[in-house]
Amino acid sequence: MSNRAYLKIWCRSVTAETLLPMLRGFLETVPSSRARPGFSQLVLRAVDMAEAPALERDLRASPASPADVAAFLGESFQMDSAVELEAWWDLWVIDSATGEWAERPQRLELVCYAPEFEHELWRDSGHLSVDLGFEHLFTGHAGLLGNGGTSPSAPQHPAEEEFLRRMSQPETLREYAQRTRENIRRLQGWIQRIAQALTLDRFALTSEGEEDFEARLDAIEAGN
Question: Would you put residue 148 in left (φ > 0), alpha (ψ -120 to 50) or beta?
């Protein structure tokens, strides 16, 4: 199973008065897929994850804007609430069969944890948390990128062997690195917009497969 990558954001001075504006300000930074714009799912929870949702909306037929989301939530979004949203953004993806690249919509899972939700879950998870999708969209496969020139490990199955054979061509590997860096820059650009829109305490980029995901991204972008 492919590893996932995550963005966690902690904000300063989150109060009952700033909670909904903080969420709306964050949503206004979310990159939108050309083919699948807007927010397509909305869930509001109260108290903790064990409780049934206080509000659920399937918005796929008419995706919502940040203003729409704020209007749907209204006064229901309280200090003991959490909001879950689905959106899509465009990233470069390689077709494993043909080796061709294309920009394709990738799913984002966004959560906002209010300060009193589930025993202050925000302290570990951030006030805002994003499942960014598959880690390899930013790191590549098989350790080819950001490894300081170290040779990749031996392939574990035929598909990986074929991938490494294709990447043994210098031009193919250069394009692979270029497209992966473009994905990283889209992520970095999003984080910059968040930092401009909100008063941040800190943020963290993590993944299931990398001990230091941020350092790996920096090494790939530097061409190491």
Answer: left
**Angle at alpha carbon of residue 95, lines to 30 and 168, rounded to 5°:** 115
Distance CA 224, CA 170 (A): 15
Query: Which run of H or of E encompasses 35?
Result: none
Q: What are phi and psi of 88, to 5 degrees?
A: -135, 145
Q: Give the 3-state secondary structure percentages of the chain, helix then strand then coil, rounded to 5.
A: 35, 30, 40
In tens, the pLDDT along 107-154 reads 999 999 999 999 999 999 999 999 999 999 999 988 889 876 566 666
Can you read off the two tokens belonging to residue 57? 């909306």
pTM over 0.90: yes
**Cα–chain-centroid distance for residue 216?**
16
Supply 71's token pair: 């209007």
Distance CA 67, CA 4 (A): 29
In the chain, where do the E strands start and end? 4-11, 41-46, 55-58, 81-94, 101-113, 128-134, 200-207
What tokens were used for 59?
């918005």
Q: How far is Cα 91 from Cα 103, in angstroms, rounded to an integer?
A: 5
Q: For residue 69, what is the enclosing H or E element? A: helix 66-73
- pLDDT tens, position by position, 59-77: 999 999 999 999 999 999 9
The residue extents of the domains of the chain are: 4-221
